[in-house]
Design goal:
Helices cover 27% and strands 21% of the residues. By secondary structure, the chain is α/β, with parallel strands linked by helices. α9 links the parallel β12 and β13 (282-285). α4 (144-156) runs parallel beside α5 (171-183). It is globular, with a radius of gyration of 20 Å.
Length: 345
């Protein structure tokens, strides 16, 4: 049930930096990072029937076995077998790594390890896509962009003409804004502590900007005043617990829905008054935008091919593989939404 992929393009996500800096749950080294990528199937292992050499694919950090209760449910994408595991550095089949140097194992990262010219991935974590799709563009769909886009389109589900607040205007938040634009929202309010992000955010449909530091009251109160009682939908993309609470409390009573995307610190606690719940404000969470990797990602690629979804504006830099450290520098400086890395150079 394993597939060997030739990676042609990969991109850097903040999660790679987070675990490279050993801020993740269990540091595990030596390890090959990378989990946003596009490539071609080089060979397939025993039991693989729906992929063959030459197929164009996106490897994904989470999977879809198609057999468990989650995979059979139309409401979930949290596969029992292949759900993301940041601690495991080996393959499921035999508990061993497929990478080594001088006889010593090099560990996998979230089942993908795409900062390598070749990688081995479980077939359930590989989405077969339209071979006409440019891999240097659609490779960014295998993590953050799909997460933000799906949080809006699949979970928040704003109606045409609705008001939407986006908390955090990094790549995931801008993808959430892009989803609101595609859904026909009339007002998209971007919330961020960095006012320099607003001009860039306009490209993704953001119409107004709020910096919480500019106000002497909680940002949820500011948004309620701007919108006559609150927004119809909000999407939180920072992982900051206070932003999560604000995103929930800023939605309108009676019909407002807040969606949490950002991952909080392990000791955080979400606190709000129960009357917010009784007043029919809805709180939801999402994982990978509620997309099932194998079933749904090919359809997201088609949104790009049909020009519904614009990916070029997410890609701010491109470097050859030999200069991958530049991608880390851009990310750490805050200069990059997505840096695409060409593996052939």
């Amino acid at each position: 049930m394993e597939v060997r992929l030739k990676i042609l393009f990969t991109s850097l996500c903040h999660t790679d930096v987070y675990f490279w800096e050993a801020k993740g749950q269990t540091p595990l080294f030596p390890r090959i990072f990378g989990h946003e990528a596009g490539g071609i199937v080089e060979s397939v292992g025993e039991g693989v029937t729906d992929l063959e050499p030459g197929d164009h694919v996106l490897p994904v950090f989470t999977g879809e076995c198609k057999e468990c209760r989650h995979c059979k449910s139309e409401e979930s994408n949290m596969c029992d077998l292949l759900r993301i595991n940041t601690d495991r550095g080996v393959m499921l089949n035999d508990g061993k790594s497929r990478f080594s140097i001088n006889g010593q194992p090099i560990y996998h990262f979230v089942g993908t390890s795409t900062f390598s010219e070749y990688t081995v991935v479980h077939v359930g974590c590989v989405a077969k896509i339209n071979p006409a799709a440019p891999l240097d563009k659609v490779c960014v769909l295998s993590c953050g962009i799909s997460t933000g886009l799906g949080a809006t389109l699949n979970v928040a589900k704003p109606g045409k003409g609705s008001t939407v607040a986006i908390f955090g205007l990094g790549a995931v938040g801008l993808a959430a804004a892009e989803g609101a634009r595609m859904a026909g929202a009339s007002r998209i309010i971007g919330v961020d502590l960095n006012s320099k992000r607003f001009n860039e955010a306009k490209k993704f449909g953001v119409t107004e900007f709020v910096n919480p530091k500019d106000h002497g009251k909680p940002v949820q109160e500011v948004i309620a005043e701007m919108t006559g009682g609150g927004v119809d939908r909000s999407v939180e993309c920072t992982g900051n617990i206070n932003a999560m609470i604000s995103a929930y409390e800023c939605v309108h009573d009676g019909w407002g829905v807040a969606v949490l995307v950002g991952v909080p610190n392990k000791d955080d606690a979400f606190k709000t008054h129960p009357m917010n719940v009784l007043n029919e404000k809805t709180l939801k969470g999402t994982f990978f935008g509620n997309y099932k990797p194998r079933s749904d990602l090919p359809l997201v690629v088609e949104k790009y091919m049909n020009k519904e979804l614009q990916l070029e504006k997410f890609i701010t830099h491109e470097v050859p593989f030999s200069e991958i450290n530049k991608a880390f520098d851009y990310m750490l400086r805050g200069d990059s939404l997505r840096c695409v890395i060409r593996m052939d150079a």
